[in-house]
Amino acid sequence: MSAGPGTAGAAGASTPQDVDDLRELHRELRDVARDMLRKTAGRTGDDEAPVPVDWSLLAGSGWLGLEVPEELDGAGATFAEVAVVLHEIGRAAASSGYLGSAVLGVGALRLLEPGAGRDELLAAVAAGEQRLAVALPAGDDVTIPFHVRPATPGDAPGAGGGARVDGTAGFVLDAAEADQLLLVALDPTGVPVVVRVRPDDPGVTVTGQPVVDETRSLGAVTVDGAVVDAGSVWQFGTDPQESVRRLLDRAALAVACDCLGLAEAMLEATVDYAGTRRQFGRPIGSFQAVKHACADMFVRISVGRELLAAGVAAVASDDPQAGVAVSRAKSYVCVAAVDVAGRAMQLHGGIGYTWEGGVHVYLKRALLGRALFGAPAAHRARLAARFAEPADDPLTE
Amino acid sequence: MSAGPGTAGAAGASTPQDVDDLRELHRELRDVARDMLRKTAGRTGDDEAPVPVDWSLLAGSGWLGLEVPEELDGAGATFAEVAVVLHEIGRAAASSGYLGSAVLGVGALRLLEPGAGRDELLAAVAAGEQRLAVALPAGDDVTIPFHVRPATPGDAPGAGGGARVDGTAGFVLDAAEADQLLLVALDPTGVPVVVRVRPDDPGVTVTGQPVVDETRSLGAVTVDGAVVDAGSVWQFGTDPQESVRRLLDRAALAVACDCLGLAEAMLEATVDYAGTRRQFGRPIGSFQAVKHACADMFVRISVGRELLAAGVAAVASDDPQAGVAVSRAKSYVCVAAVDVAGRAMQLHGGIGYTWEGGVHVYLKRALLGRALFGAPAAHRARLAARFAEPADDPLTE
Amino acid sequence: MNTSTEDLAEFRAEVRRWCREHVPADWRRAQTVAGDAEFVAFQQAWFQELRTGGYAVPHWPAEWGGGMPAAQQVVLYQELAAHDAPRLVLGFVSIHHAASTLLAAGTDEQRARHLPAILDGEIWVQGFSEPEAGSDLAGLRTTARREGDGFVVDGQKLWASGAAHADWCLLLARTDPAAPKRRGISYFLMDMRSPGLDVRPVRNAAGESHFCEIFLNGVVIPAENLVGPVNQGWQVAQATLSAERGMTMLELAERLGNAGFRWLVEACRGPAPGGGRLVDDPRVQDRLAELETEIAGLRALCLGLVERHEAGTAGPADASVVKLYYSELLQRTMDFAVEVAGLPAHTELRKPASSGWESGAWVLDFIGSWEWTIPGGTSEIQRTIIGERGLGLPREPVVPA
Amino acid sequence: MNTSTEDLAEFRAEVRRWCREHVPADWRRAQTVAGDAEFVAFQQAWFQELRTGGYAVPHWPAEWGGGMPAAQQVVLYQELAAHDAPRLVLGFVSIHHAASTLLAAGTDEQRARHLPAILDGEIWVQGFSEPEAGSDLAGLRTTARREGDGFVVDGQKLWASGAAHADWCLLLARTDPAAPKRRGISYFLMDMRSPGLDVRPVRNAAGESHFCEIFLNGVVIPAENLVGPVNQGWQVAQATLSAERGMTMLELAERLGNAGFRWLVEACRGPAPGGGRLVDDPRVQDRLAELETEIAGLRALCLGLVERHEAGTAGPADASVVKLYYSELLQRTMDFAVEVAGLPAHTELRKPASSGWESGAWVLDFIGSWEWTIPGGTSEIQRTIIGERGLGLPREPVVPA
Q1: Do B289 and A287 touch (CB under 8 A)?
Q2: ipTM associated with this complex
C-alpha cells in the first residue's frame, strides 16, 4: 500500500511543475517523519503509559515552525505540510505536544493581528522554546468558554489598564505541558479575542484530565479572576467570529489527519497479520471473510484520503468555504477510523484483544478523535444546514 | 430451514397442551396454504402481469372467514391464524384480495358495534360472496381521510335522514376488485366511524393506482358528496380513536407477516441457488462471501420472526399495548425483507437481475411493504415517544 | 490547454451557454413513452449535437477529436448533469470500451476504420459474459476456430447491453481450448450483420430490455479483426479496463452528485406527508449530509483515478475500488430515495429512456442499481480483486477439480 | 410450577422484594476501585446471597437446586438487571459451562463431587483455546499422554478467563496425535492446584487482567477426571455448547435490555452539550428505537432457544445465531453509547468489577465488546457455522496441505 491518491493537497501551487515539486517535498517530509516516529513512538514507561516523543526531537525536526513565517525562523510552509506530519503522528499513534503547540498554537497566533508579542511567541514556538495550548471548545458545543473585562483595582492591586479573565474549558489538548495558554475569549462587547496566560498565573488552574486514550494529554483550564496586562489580550486580524470558526476547522481537520494516519496503520497491520497467521491450514487472509473486510477498509481509507485532501487544500489556501470540506473530512474520516480500527481488532483475533497486541491503542485514539472538535453528527448537521434552501449556484464543485 | 422459533403466537392458549394444539393447527394451516399457493401463485397472464389467486379457491379454503365468528359461518379463529395465511401469501408473493377482504375488511367489521347489517356482511365475506376494501390511511400520514355530515335535500333528492360523505384516500388495498368499500371517516363531532359505500354509488369513484409491484392491487377512492342511508354509517364498538389505531396496527402487522414470508422465500431460493451454481470450480455457496451473507439473512429473519410473533400475539389477544410490538415488528421486518431480497438479487448474480429470474417480484413487493402503513422511520418515531420521560415501570417485558 | 481556476470558470460559462441553447426541452416526457426507434433516433441526434459542440468524446486523444484535460471534463459533466442533459446511453460502449480498446491495442487500420465511424454514430456492444461465465470470465465457452483467413465462432453471449442496435461487437472467444483457463482467449471485433448471428432481448429486473443474448452459429470473423495477439484476449481486456473505468466514472459520479442527489434534496424540500418538509427533519438531514459527503468522496476518487491513469501511477485495484464504491453508493442513495419518497414513488412505472442511473423514478432506479453491483464483475469479485491485487493478500487456494 | 401471567406477576413481586432487600447499596463505587481479593470476596458473598434466595442456579435441574421454568428465569434476570444487582462474573463458568458439561456428560461421581462444591463456591475456568488454536479448535496442540492410572498433560492454554482464581479447569487436550484433527481430543477436569501448572494473567484491550495463560508441564490428571470417552472430547464440548449458550444468554439479554439500554436512555434524558436533551433529538430517538427493537428481538430469541432446547427442537445453528447476534448488537449499542456520551465518556478509566458488559463506562464497554465478537469462536466462525450447519451450504473445500 504505497502513498495513494490525494496526498495532502497542493495549495499555493499553480503550475503542474509546482504541484510535482510539492508532492516530492511532501514525500520527503513524510519519509523523514515516518522514520523518526518509528524509532521513538510507541514506547511505554514504567507505569506502562506511553512516553511522549522527545520534545527536543520535535524542535530539531523543524516541524514545530512549519507554518511560522521564515522571517521568524519558521519554514514558511502551509497547513498542507503540517497535515503530512499530523498524518504520520497518527500512523504511529504517537504521544506528543505537536497538536497543541504547532497546529493550534501557531494557527491561533497566525490569525491574530501581527505585533511584537505575537511574533516573539511564534519564533519561540518554532524554536521549541515555548510550548502552547489553546483553550477552545473541544466538543459539540462551540460556545466560547472565556470572558474578558477591564480589570478594576478590586480584582488585583494595581490592575488598572489590565484585563480580568474568567471561564473554564475542558479537554484542552496538551494543556498540562504548555508553558503558555491561549484562551479564546469574548471581550466585553462580545467580540472574540485571544488572551495569553501562564499556567502559574494567579487565578489560572490547569488540571490533567486522563482519558482512556493514554496517548493524548488533555486538561481542564479554569480561569477565575485572573488579571493580565493589556498586552496579553490579542485581537484577531480579520473578522473575529470567522477567525474562531477557522481555528475550530483547523482543529477538527488536524484530528481527521491523525485519524486517517492511524486507520492506514491499522489496515497495514491487519494485512500483514492476515498474510502470516494461519488457521484451518491456510493464511487467514486467503479467506474471503478477511479479504473482503480488508478490501472494505481499503475503500473507506481511499475515500477518506480524498475528502481529507480536499479539506487540507481548502484550509491551507484559506478558502472561505473551507468549512464544508472540513466537515466532510472530519465526519467521514473519523467514523471510518473507528470502524477500521475495530475491524483490525476483530481480524487480529485473540491477539487483537490483548493489551500487548497494541490494536487497542489505535482504537481508543480513534474513538477520542471521533469525539474531539465535533462529533460526526455535529459536522453532518452543519453540512445539512445548506440543504434547507436552494443555493444560488447549486453545483457541488 | 424448517419452521423455526416463534411461529405465529399462541394467543388464547393458556395451558401447554393448548399451546401444542395451536402449534399443530398452525402447522397444518401453513402446509395446506403453502401447497395451494405453490400451485396457483406466480402465474402471469398474456400481458405478463401476475394472475391473482382464484377467488373461489380462497373462498373454498375457509381462510376468508378465519376471524368471522362461528355463528356467522366463520372459523371463529384469531389473527394468529390469519397471520399464518398472510405469511404464506408473502412467501408465494401471491396476488390476491385476501388483505383487503379477510384482514382489513373483517378486522374493521369486528371492531364495530354488532348489528344486523354488519353481521350479514361478515357472513357474506366469510363465504366469499362479497369482497371488501377498507379506505384508511396507507402511508405515514394517519389523518382520517373521509368526513360525514347529515345529508340535506340539497345533497340528493330525498336525502333526509341519510348522510353525506366526502374525502379521498390513496393506495387503498384491493379497492378495484371490491364489491363494497368501508371508509374510515370522521362524523360531524370528530368521532371516527365507518361508512359503507359501493363503488358504483353516485359520487364514489375508484381508480386503479398501478405500482411497480405488480402483485398488489391498489386504488384511489374519491368520494364527492355521496349520500348513504343512516344504516350504512357504523359506530365503533369501543373507543373509536383506539379502534382506528388498532385497525392501523392490524394493517401494518399484516404487511409485516407478508414481508417475513417473502424474506424466507428469498433466503431459501438463494441457498438453493448457491448450492448448485458453480463458479471458479466450486458451488458459490462454499465461498464465505456468499455463505456469510446467507448467514446474515438467516439471523435477520430469525430476529424478525420473534418480533413478528410478539406482534401477532399482542394483536390476536387485543393487548392494549399491542402498538409497541407492532411498530417493532413492522419496522424491523420490513427493513429486513428489503435487505434480504436485495441480497438475494445480488447473490443470484446475472440471473437475479433478469425479469425471468423472478427475484425482482419479491424485491418490489418488499419495497412496497416497507412503505405501506407506516415507513420504518415512522414506526420508530412512535416507539421513541416512550423514551422522553421515565415510565412508571420501565421494565421491557 | 490550461486548467487554472480562471480558465475553468470561463470554460464552465461556455458549457452553460451551450447547455442552455442545446439541451432539448422536455425530452424526459417524450423519452418516457418512447418506442425503440424513437430512442435510437434521439440518442443519435443528441450524440451529433454534442459532437458539434465538441463535447461528444472529450476523453479521446486530441488527434481523434478529444484531448480535454480531466479538470475540464469534470466541469463539462457537472454542467451536463446540472442542466439535465440526456445521457449517451446507446453510444456508451462505442465511445468508452470500444474506443479505449482500439486506442490501446488496436491496429492503425482498425482505429482508422472505426474511430471516425463511431463519431458518425457506429454503435458497439460488449460480448464478454456467458451463461457459464458470469463473474468468472475464465469459464468462457464460446470458441473461435481458425479457418483459412479467419475465425469461425460458435457459442452464446449474455448481458450484451444494446446488442439489438449494435453495428459491431467486442467479442471474447476461446481460441485454444487446451490452454489454462485465462489463457487461450482472443479478442475480436465482430460485425453484427454477420450471418449466423441471432440477437434476443432479455428483460431485466426493472422491466427494460436493453440486455440481450447473442447466439453465434458459425459466425465468420476475418483475421484482421483480431485485437492484439491470438490467445492474449484476456490480457487485452484487463489492460483496457482501468482506463475505461476512470473515464466512464468521471461522468457518472458527476451525474450522481449534480443530478441524482440534487433532485433528492429538492424532493425533500417539498411538503412532507405529515406536514412540514422532509429536509427539516434532522434524521433526513443527517442522511443527506452523509450521502453528499460520500458522493464528494466518489467525485474526488474518480478524478484521482483519471489523473493517476494519465500519470501512469494508478494502482492495480484502483478501478475496482471506484467500481465497487460507486455501485454500492448508488444503491444506498437510491434506497434512501425510495424510503423518503414514500408511496407515491411506487406509481412511477417507467423511467425515461436516455436518462441517468438516477432518473427520479426512484423505485426503478433502486432496482436498476443492481445493474452496477452485479454485471462487470460483482461487488464480491471486486472485493477479491482489491484484497489480492490492491493489498497483496494471499489468493484463494486452488481446489483440486 | 406454573407460568401463567398471574403466577409470573407474583414471582416478579417476590424477586423485587428480594432485590430491594439484598442488592448491596453502592457496590459499584467499591468495585470500581476494588483489588483482586476484594473482588473475589464480593463475588463469593454475592453468590451465597443469591443462593440463599434460591436465585443462584435457577437453570440447574431441580434435583441439584434449580428447576426454575424459563419464563421465571426471564423475570428473575429482568429484575436483577433493573435493580442493578452485581453479576456473577467469577462463578460464570462454574454454574454454566462446568455444570452443563457435568450434567450432560459427567459421571455420577463427578456430579456428586463437583455440583455441590460449585454451590459452595468452587471456581472453574475453561481451558480450550491455545496460541495456535484460536477459532480453529482442531489445531489444538496440548497433549495428554496416558501414563498408568492417569494422563500427563503438556502444553499451553490461552484466554482462560478467571484462571488466577480457579479451583478447577475444563480442559481439552489431544490424546491421539495421529487421529484426524477434530478426533483424538479428550475432555478433562483438571485440578488447578496440580503440580506443573503455571498461571500468568494477560492484560486485555480494556486494561483488565482476567484472561490468563496456563502453562502445563507434566501435569497429572487421574483417569477418573476424564469426561466422556477418550478421544471424544470435541464432541462433548460441542454437545454442551448449545445448552450453555441459551442459558447464559437469557441473563445477558435481559442485562442489555434492562440495565445497559435503560441507562443509555436515561443518559440521553440528561442535558445535551449544546442545550436541550439528546432524547429529544430525532436522530437519537431513531437510533434508540432501532436498538430497543433489536434488543427486544434478542430477548425473544434467547427465550426461544432455551425453550426449544428444553423441547429438543433447537436447530443445529441456533446457538451460533444467538451468540453472533448478541455480540454484534452489544457492540453496536456500545458504539452508539460512546458516540452520544461525547468527550466526558472518555474520562471513565475503570469499569466496576462485578458489573455487566455494559457498565456505563461506555468507552471501556465498547472495547470490551470485542471479548464477545472474538473469543468462543469469532463472528466469522459463527457465520460459517450458520451457513453450513444451519442452512446446509457446502463446506469450504479442503485444501491439499
Answers
A1: no
A2: 0.95
